[in-house]
Batch of 4 targets.
Target 1
Amino acid sequence: MENVVLEVKDLRKKFTLHLLEEKEIVGFQSVSFTLKRGEFLGIAGKSGSGKSSLIKCIYRTYLSTSGKIIFYPNGRNSVDLATCLDEEIIDLRYRKIGHVSQFFYAIPRVSCLDIVTQSLVQQGVNIDEAKKSAKNMLSCLLIPDKLFDAHPSTFSGGEKQRVNIARALVKEPELLLLDEPTASLDKVSRGTVLEEIFELKKKGTSAIGVFHDEKELRSFADKILVMGNEREIKVYENDNPR
Amino acid sequence: MRKCILRIEGLTKIYGSTIAVVSVSFSLYQGEILGVVGESGSGKSTLVQSLYFDITPTFGKAYLNEEKKNIFELNSQEKRKLKNFDMGMVYQNPYLGLNFEITAGGNVAEKLLMADWRNYSHIRNRLTYLFEKTELPLNRMDDFPSTLSGGMQQRIQIAKALANNPKILFLDEPTSGLDLSVQARFLDLVKKIQQELRISMILVSHDLGVIRLLADRVLVMKDGRIIESGLTDQILEDPQSSYTQLLVNSML
């Protein structure tokens, strides 16, 4: 068990819409899997099958309806991300868990370099070192130097998304959650982003990523989770991981 | 786990037959920004003003730094000391937070004097530091608040609130009167202060956009009660109570 980073057991999510006469909507049904250190789990499935909902439950943007999400961080006690205190989640988000959302939120008129730097400063890295690593990460993700002091609100969709990714990757988190990270990227930058993720994998980061295309996932994921209705949900080892 | 800076238990405020705040309990942790949202009249401002001793609560207890002493039971001198040394406040209305009869620098210096600063040059140096920190132009230090813009007035309130390195900063609708460009700079300033000085903050705002960008956690208040609390993104994306769902669905 010592190699396990995350253990998801019979996790379920449903939404109750109080404004629509208590209508209930199923996010996803019974999901279980384990993730080992340095593994990449890809999540595939149709739109609306609950892929993003699952990522959001693990990051605690959604409250899980039932089930467990046991996280085994290095050097700490294991913790159930579905039920632990908000304070614990905040601390884990700063130090252990990286997340790339589908949408990009940042304080307006803060430079993209500062946004990425802040993510390290929160981790306790000193500001000069943080700046250096942030510059490095932005360059790796093909953001040109001349944009470093520009505000991301003026960026293209793909550039914004790469800043968003840089902000998560620069922390070298133990657990990386990716919600369609490459959806708005062209082929070249998509490849670069994946390269950076593999670099982190080598250093021990485990990742869970939503990707639309199961075929694409088969070219690099260690395990694939297919979402759908209760009968369709399955996890399988990929024969040909990278 | 982070240290608990302030713990509130059963805070209640009754005005005659109106109940403004009912049995509110929560904790504030080291270095976090805790958002408080809710419609006007939900008791948000009464809550922070009670904690800053502007209002005397009817019932309730509050503990600083895991100490055993209920701060609402301190005598007025001890309360004043806490207020001057450990707390800072930024009001929505600068007329509540600033004295318009004295200069901008004088307003900040007043807070220093109350915390027993006596040496003129030390005070002047501290003012320079605070003006730089809050991005206020030094050449406006000796101007009166009425001659400054709304955004500058709010930043003077912040400079004043930060004067004595407080542990807790209360922000009561700090950006409501500001235009968007000034608001963006103000938000960035608050975030920087949180990160550099590790000050814990309670941020009251009805603007969910402001809360999303600044707060780590959020309390949702309605009719004087906390009806829901959680991580900011969770409250905004997966609100549980019917009122919070309505609030979030009404967001622009």
Note: The beta strands of chain A are 4-17, 23-36, 40-44, 66-71, 79-80, 97-100, 175-179, 206-210, 223-226, 234-237.
Target 2
Amino acid sequence: MNAGRPAGSRLPWWWIGGAAALLMTAVVVGAMIGAVSIAPLDIMRSALDRLPFIDVESGLSERDDAIVWQIRMPRVILGVIVGSMLSVSGAAYQGVFRNPLADPYLLGAGAGAGLGATIAIAYGPDLDWLIDPVPVAAFAGAVLGVVLAYVLGYTVRAGRTAVTLILAGVAVAAFLTAAQTYLQQKEADSIREVYGWILGSLSTAGWGEVRLVLPYVIVSMIVIVASRRLLDVMSVGDTEASTLGVKPARIRLILIGFATLGTAAVVSVSGLIGFVGIIIPHTVRLMTSASYRVIVPLSILLGGAFLVFADILARSIQAPAEIPIGVVTAFIGAPFFALVLRRSKGVAT
Amino acid sequence: MTAIAVESVSVSYNGTNVLTDVSIDVAEGTWMGLVGPNGAGKSTLLKAIVGAVDYDGSIRVGDANAPDDRKAMALRLAYVPQRPVFPVGMSVFDFVLLGRTPHLGPLAAEGSQDIAIVWDSLATLGLTEFVNRDVASLSGGETQRASLARVLAQEPRVVVLDEATASLDVAAQHEVLELIARIQEERGVTVLSAIHDLTAAAQFCDELTLIDEGDVVATGVPEGVLTESTLGDVFEPTIRVIEVEGSLVVVSLRTEGNPQ
């Protein structure tokens, strides 16, 4: 009789197609806009020309080619990577915690990265470094924050439930933020730089940053995408999930681990860009389906597109000055999210 | 053949004994009802059997030993808790599809056979027209049917139900119990269910186990367990057991303020 899945259980091709088209548009527009405007067709021809076995006359002058490929494109691509990673990490966190307010910074990744970056900014310049110490310290701080929260949550006698883990994360994040604020006030010279880092920016992006974060992001995205069916199983709670034959505590550990790895990597180069990890998965959830088979892939595509558009605004509104991208994500994200929320039936937990 | 063997099982929460040395055997293909007052330990016993609480003693479900091997257990046994979680926004189809989880590798996707089994389960429970509906928006009786459809999709040999009909009106309750009876009969599964309604328990269950304060008080066929003297000791002395058209009916008489 009935063959395949019904409509409500499928990821519609037009959603995937539409989200991919939006992401491509964001990339092209991101490469177009700036002090020198460049025609979108020239950018696309130039991109085609760079593919193996394809030879197209790009029409870009040498100078424009350098602007597109050395200045704008690395920034745009990093925006795609950061936005996608934060969104899909947010989706994974919301899934394993069954909590709509979960975001990638919930367990102390943000606070840890902030503390690491503050230490590196405040004390780093006095030392002789081979590489920029800020991303390394931010990455280490993010991972350390989550490890601390997990160990604290794990050792609580009441058990390894999602709630204990969230509370442990709240405690660790509060502690690390307090330490970060103390250092920031004590080393007042670095306050502006620390503050700028915390609000997030893609302005220092080059291909080096892209190469640096890409391996972590690819690995963690592969794990989260492969686990999307298990995230659906987790949505019925630990007891029922375990009677369906899975191990909720283990799934939570693996997904938190990989989501944190990817988040720590992107945060180390972009600073703490907020809001993306909550609004993108929720917007997908409210507009399409509560199944993570739909939420995970769409969050990757739309998260990337959203952050690139946010970055375009961040660098255009007060050009040539830039406003922090975290301000833009909240400023356009919040009203948009409110609109989606108003039109929706309810929020899945 | 014994489908579920519970031997000398004790459970305590924070030092308080909830179950003390409980032993029951559920024969394959039968429906065993757990009856008893609120807080007697029925739900705790079911949770111990499905591996959701720690216990002392031994529980075997077929060859699987709870809670050593979750997957082997899930392939044999399906569980519907007292208050199942119905995720907001999840379609009925996706909810029932979760029942296929134990049959899939950790990262595998559902195949066409899984999808066909889900359609078959939905048809058995009369839910085909609800496939695209939000499972959290269904009525009480419909959600119970969705839970049972997920149970069927899991293809278990044993079904453990904790108060499957607790919040349903009398018609919906009977409908759900008839569906369980049909599943038991047609698929030859063993059913173990906690059930509050003693009259329904007498009509639907092959055997009953009466639990009070963490102890087994009586076990056997309904006629042997549901006697006025036993129920009077466990519940209240005014309980009466009468027979209507060959079925036992358990009623409790009002003692104070009776208009008669």
Note: The mean pLDDT of chain A is 85.
Target 3
Amino acid sequence: MNQFIPRGTSKISARGLNVHYGDKQALHDIDLDIPAGEVTALIGPSGCGKSTFLRCINRMNDMVDGAKVTGSLTLDGSDVYDRQLDVVQLRARVGMVFQKPNPFPKSIYDNVAYGPRIHGLARDQAELDEIVMNSLEKAGLLAEVESRLSESGTSLSGGQQQRLCIARAIAVAPEVILMDEPCSALDPIATAKVEELIDELRDNYTIVIVTHSMQQAARVSQRTAFFHLGKLIEVGGTEEIFTNPREPLTQGYITGRFG
Amino acid sequence: MTEMTEITSAVRTAETVAARLNRRYAAERRFRLLGLASIVLSAGFLVLLLGTVIAKGWTGFLQTQIAVEVAFDPQVIDPDGNRAPEVLDTADYPALVRNALAARLAPDADRGTRRDLSAMVSTMGAEQMRRMVAANPSVIGGRATLWLPASDKLDMVYKGQAPREVGADGNALSDRQLGWLAELEKTGQIRKAFNVQFFTGGDSRAPEQAGIWGAVVGSFFSLAVTLLISFPLGVATAVYLEEFAPKNRWTDLIEVNINNLAAVPSVVFGLLGLAVFLNVFHLPRSSPVAGGLVLALICLPTIIIAGRAALKAVPPSIRQAAAGLGASPLQIVAHHVLPLAMPGMLTGTILGMARALGETAPLLMIGMVAFIVDIPKSPLDPSAVLPVQIYLWAGSSERAFVEKTSAAIMVLLLFLVAMNMAAIMLRKKFERRW
């Protein structure tokens, strides 16, 4: 689906990124590079701005009243906040999976087919079927739902719903997938399945995941960025961050002294 | 020492709580009784209201009829014998009815007696004969026994809603007529049958001929106009205000105004309709078009408020999911939010329409209170609507209109209950949980 992504090149890069919600500043001068073809985890205590940063990448903050973004954020070198850039096009390239599984109250098939339909990705029904099946397959859900594609997406279990949402996101063939605490509403078994899935997906997609669980960050990510009070404290290889953090704040957080 | 105090205080707490327990129970019991009493009281009033209406009105669905053996006398109907339609149409059928009654009840009647006789049957009897002749001229020269509708006075007496004692004061019927009634009863030539006229006729000055069909059709046309105007406008307004409009002083102002408009007395909308729709746009007076437009204005705030509530109830996660896939704001609304909000919007619309169906005052302002006999054929024809028809009949002096009024109220209530049931079923059917 996607062409080979050279590892290590910077897919997304933020320079001096500031976000305000009304009078409150949520992000301060963020400089962060997110490499292609890897999983980057954003960690930090509640309210540290990691979700805000994630939502800047596909401009979901546009939907929030009073949100203001300054500084530069580029995807493949072109400015995400360029006035010329169409947000619909951006979101087709940058998919998103939310904290709470939010399938549409439609059939499983229609859930996955929705993205390709609105973007006109399939020329005919057969092609659409193929995209849907492929996406469900990649999300590891096909075997479980193959016989009941016309049932409502909301009838699935929580973990299945979240994998359906992932299938829905990859059906559009995005380059980047943003995940906002995708496992926080799931039980440990469903979490394990989603984590396994994330690991498989990183060959084809650049993944940015916000998580509250440091174990999860350690398990699924290659790079980790630690946010605190709207500032980026430290970023580096996941192993390095967890074994040998440079900053005392990071050390304090990963050893559970606060958070 | 401290241990002792702790124990004592624990005991004291238990005692204090126990002492207050009975008071608490009593207070709870009182509160429950109060609620129960108010429910019983309101249910009682409802039963009283419905009971009165039904007791007074159910006989309105029945019509008293007299069996009369009439002769289709060729001398009266068509003296020339050439069966010309206009001659058949204008023949003196009332005389035939009168003759038939005289032959049965008072063979040697004088003029005064004959007048009394013809006052026993409705003029619809002669009309019934005329239609028979028009449909099939070969009945001329023959005889037939017909069930002719009684006049409203005989109808009232026979149904027991007017005094029947011979010689009583303020009798609807003369003593002679009462005698005839007794004779008809003896031979079984008088009966109560289902009142078809009430459901198929237009308004009339003669109570036994008055029906609600004209008002039903008028109400239908008015509501159709109302629905056509207020539903699309209301939904579009709700969607724009809820999904697209920026939140600023202007939209706040509009919101406050819409909420206030929902509480404006409907007669004010009637005055507005009079000033704008009749005086400026010169729409036909008393017509369902003008009435429907006024009712649409009354419904709009309700529909908008219900629509916005329905849109608000759609969880933001659905909007985010669609936006995350790259759906445009219009696609988010059209593909996801609106379909999910539609049942709520429809419920609000039906409730608004139910309110519009019962509105009287604003329609009086635009002249829908006129006495209209003809059944309206289009929304441009003058017509009455059900509540106004009830209002008109309630103000009529004939005793027989009392039961007509109550019967019409029952029909109106039936429509209202049906609409509210539809709304409830719609809500139940599409109720969704996320």
Note: The mean pLDDT of chain B is 89.
Target 4
Amino acid sequence: MNRLQTPSELENLRKSLEAGRDSSRTCITVCMGTGCSASGAAEVTKSFREEIERQGLGEQIGIRTTGCHGFCERGPLVVVHPEGIFYQKVSREDVAEIVSRTAVQGEILDRLLYTDPASGKKIIREKEVPFYRKQTRLLFGNNGRINPTSIEDYIALGGYSSLGRALFKMKPREVIDEIKKSGLRGRGGGGFPTGRKWDSCRKAEGELKYVICNADEGDPGAFQDRSLLEGNPHSVIEGMIIGGYAVGAEEGYVYVRDEYPLAVKHIEIAIRQAAEYGLLGDNILGSGYSLAIKVNRGGGAFVCGESSALMASIEGRLGEPRFKHAHATEKGLWDRPTTLNNVKTWATVGIIISMGAREYAKIGTEKSKGTMIFSLVGKINNTGLVEVPMGITLRELIFDIGGGIPDGKRFKAVQTGGPSGGCIPDTMLDLPVDYDSLKEAGSMMGSGSFIIMDEDTCMVDVAKYFLSFTIEESCGKCTPCREGAGHMLRILDTITRGEAEEKDLELLEEIGKMMKVTSLCALGKDAPNPILSTLRYFRDEYTAHITQKRCPAGVCRALIEYSIDGDACTGCGACVQACPESAISGKAKEPHVIDGKKCIKCGLCLDACAFDAVKVS
Amino acid sequence: MMNADLIKEVDRIVDLYGGRITGSIGMLQDIQSRYSYLPREALIHVAERLDVPLSQVFSLATFYKAFSLRPRGKHLIVVCMGTACHVRGATRLVDEIGRKLDIKPGETTEDNLFTLEAVNCLGACALGPLMVIDGEYYGNMAPKKVESVLGKYSES
């Protein structure tokens, strides 16, 4: 493979690769993101290869594995091009028929199509599925079109041409101005204006500067960074090189969670391929600018997503946050000027350079420009990743795109921003989603995870869950976070056991406010958010636990009891089999009873019963 | 395991990272994936090679959750406790696995067959509740499916 020496060589390569991608040729793409892979996409791919071989169709039909399409709930996903016929929940048994009937004869297999639950209609093309229709897939659009381990696929679709333009047609100053004009704000959650960050790093004194990609995506419920790294790693690298050129960096690091093995693999392959083509390393595209990028794997510590802790970790030290007397843009990694951005931020850079800041800034709201990738998870029909313009309402996100709540249950709240965010109630469904309105509502954008909760979710239990998470992940360096969170958890614990008093709620608020002001880093400062926001919007539920000793959602074990409805019970004995404590007894074909003294409230009988006879009160 | 072999292997891994403290977390990861935990002798040798106090290497090995100082069982069960899995009943899942194997998260069964770990989020939220055994994903897990899944590993 020849190193590319000039931007025109890159453009020639692109043209020849594009010509090689015959768009009229039949091609079957299989999503190989983590979601689809776990649902059996690898087996499906293997079967396709074998079947195409078996039918001797290797010349006519191509097969391509792609990154995540986002609609993980319906995986494995298969698209037959050029028609774009979209099949979901495909299994090995469907493969032969897809090849012989759809790929060869153009026939559509009804049973594999997606059915719109609202209209009951079968939908043929991916982009017509309601889940996709309201999306603006700037970052994610190519995930389904390229093989993430092939740089040629990326280049064929115009990849690295933004880099060429930045290096040869723009001065570093102009790149920064363009990013400033686009209004791009940090997609890791903080929302700091990216252009301003770059500017101060550029101006900082120092021979050696660094760019870092923060891919330590630790927020439970967030997997957008993983999907981008797995599905389109070159877009992240291209952004980092452009950013490195703008701020004057010579070295770059991608700090990625070790829990994401596929993302690690794909980013490493991408870095190697880019270097082979001369798009990374010394004298990139003959421009005279050089940048080397290395990959660092995390060690399973959530706090390392915090920028100063992350840098400490790259240095080989404990991932403890530092007090920021100087910005990382001046004194970051090894005390040298450093620009650290999130995966999504870096991936957006190339898009802005290619479409222009003015066009980009037309998307979104006044203060939050562009698109954001959200994860929709929890009690929602269409679990997955969606990319939408900033300013979309919660209602559109959850009901129009997410398809609402399963099993006809009622929507109760959405938790945004991970353990640092808050819960937003149903009365605020028309809230536009952007950095500032979420903050006003007592939550935050964070990494963009949206956890949907229905009527069966206990908000005190949720608050306790997040706080337990924070305590486990707190590094323990500063007292407010270490002790404050522990004390709050003890109070929440007494509430869920029905042993708290009403004045404890005030104490919770007092400690929470103290932590917000005095903690060292954002982990401690934002840790009280889940509690403070649920106290704000769901105070009744806290009160019910305290005064009536009742958990309205039927979750908190100390406050609930299991019983069997004698009328519904058929005496089949399934619950007796399931009970680990032998707490259920009864004669065959007669109603059974639960011994409350032996019952540990594990809920296994509830799962086992086919007649809905086990009740929680 | 011969001690000399271990020293040789640790040397190889340390060299891979240029023998500098910067690469220490990567070194520990590689050692752990080779031996399934961080053997005491390996930590001592890493400290010697990097010319830092053993306490410094030990602090890294205990701060970062991915590391284990005890040998792990033949099969590693990882249960996702992320929010999406939590609201879909991950606690009941991990309870049931713990009951069946008579261990708590972080522990290994007496016969050394299974180690159970509860982790924060595996980022496959559409599949929740989710457990992963030796890299194999089991999505939409219900407590009642636990016995049959574990059975597949008990025989081997």
Note: Chain B touches chain A through 45 residues (CB under 8 Å).
